[in-house]
Design goal:
By secondary structure, the protein is of the alpha/beta class. It has three domains: about 5-65, Nucleic acid-binding proteins (OB fold (Dihydrolipoamide Acetyltransferase, E2P)), CATH 2.40.50; about 70-215, Rossmann fold; about 230-290, Ribonucleotide Reductase Protein R1, domain 1, CATH 1.10.40.50. It is built from eight helices and 15 strands. The chain has helices at about 35-40, 95-105, 125-135, 150-160, 175-180, 230-235, 260-270, 275-290, and strands spanning about 5-15, 15-20, 25-30, 50, 60-65, 70-75, 75-80, 80-85, 110-115, 140, 160-165, 190, 195, 205-210, 210-215. It has a six-stranded mixed beta sheet with strand order 10-9-8-11-15-14, with helices on both faces. The chain has a five-stranded mixed beta barrel with strand order 1-2-3-5-4. Strand 6 (about 70-75) and strand 7 (about 75-80) form a beta hairpin. Helix 2 crosses helix 8 (about 275-290). The longest helix is centred in the last third of the chain and has 19 residues, at about 275-290. It is globular. The N and C termini lie far apart (about 50 Å). The relative contact order is 0.12.
Amino acid sequence: MTALKTGTILRGIGSFYTAREDETGQDWTLRAKKKFRRERISPLPGDRIQFTPGEGEEHGWIEEILPRKTLCLRPPVANVETLVIVVAPVPEADLLLADRQMARAVKQGMKILMAVNKCDLDPEMAEHLRQEYAGAGVPVFQVSAQEGIGLEALRGAMAGSLCCLTGQSGAGKSTLLNALMGLDLETGEISRKIARGKNTTRHAELIEREGLRVMDTAGFSLLEPEKDLPPEELKERYPEFAPYEGKCRFRECLHDREPGCAVAQAAGDGQINPARWERYRQLLAETREVWRNRYD
């Protein structure tokens, strides 16, 4: 019987997966066994697996998917350690979308970075976002993939962990990935009529080059609410709220607009960024609505 090998899935297209073996660095073409369909588990890029290699022109088989450290549903990738949220002046940055992504990343213990691409279009945007996310402990990097600005600093922050570049369509993720890793991936243009990007990445892929391990993923403009998130747990995903926990008048305060809310007071005083708190309140209202209707 052929001995099992251990490796990492790089990409999946159709029913075929490409995995890189740990021991030799060789890439293998594999298919997933039917048991994964019965268990309702889909192999994902980034998954650590045990597999049986094929012989000759025959494909091999994924035998086991090892326990995942983290799981991103959009983009669907596994074991990401550092989430790099890419925003840009054009299209206008959707910070509510960014906060959704951050909340999920905090829950899973991911390191979070924010890259402000196309910084030459708005040199002040990065500094504004640094102030907005300082309390959350999110480093903000001012970069321009086209002009080569700030790439070394971002590359240094990404080194040593499995990273995923994510964000809305048109922010320039593929262009930035090209610049960071010396690649020649297809890139899109911004539609002038609707001021948003055209997706050029159609499937997620783990790329290893220039000392970096990065997921190339498709851009998107929406992220569905979490259906199983109790409203009282959302505040736990905001690091800037932590110093004020236990200081509110009411023990079960959700930091909305309850009387005596220490977080609301801190936002009013500028100790917590007020725009970030207002977006939290939007997500809280949405979370409450989804929670109420979770059995419908």
